[in-house]
Fold this protein.
Amino acid sequence: MHHVSDLIDVVTREPVWIEPLASVFDAVEMMNREDIGALLVQIDGYLVGIVSERDYVRKVLLDHHATKITKVSEIMTRDPVTVTPEDTVVHCIALTRKHRIRHLPVVVAGKPVGILSLRDLFLDVIHEKFEEHNIVEEEISD
């Protein structure tokens, strides 16, 4: 069984973050530029929230708020569900299901060290199953 620490270096890069007083426009622009679906919201290096494309659609577009004047802090999820490098992938998947979320910040002592998406978790499980059945990657890519 894999742990978050097994995935963090493989599937994530340096966490992409934004300040809570930045505009939602800036957040959406950053997500687009980085080709990601969520940003960590930080103050002085500490995680204070998470903002996602889903937050934007549900809390800005549908409520007819102005993207350029709405602040990230107004739509972010405060006290997001987080995991540590010691948590298992199975535990992470259970958390995403229980809380109906797609992104899990990986935190050590309150500071984010990465972020995992539901896709990252599922790909790890699939890869592990292939390894169990001795299916080589060459066969998968054909």
Notes: The chain has one domain: 4-136. The CA atoms of residues 49 and 79 lie 6 Å apart.
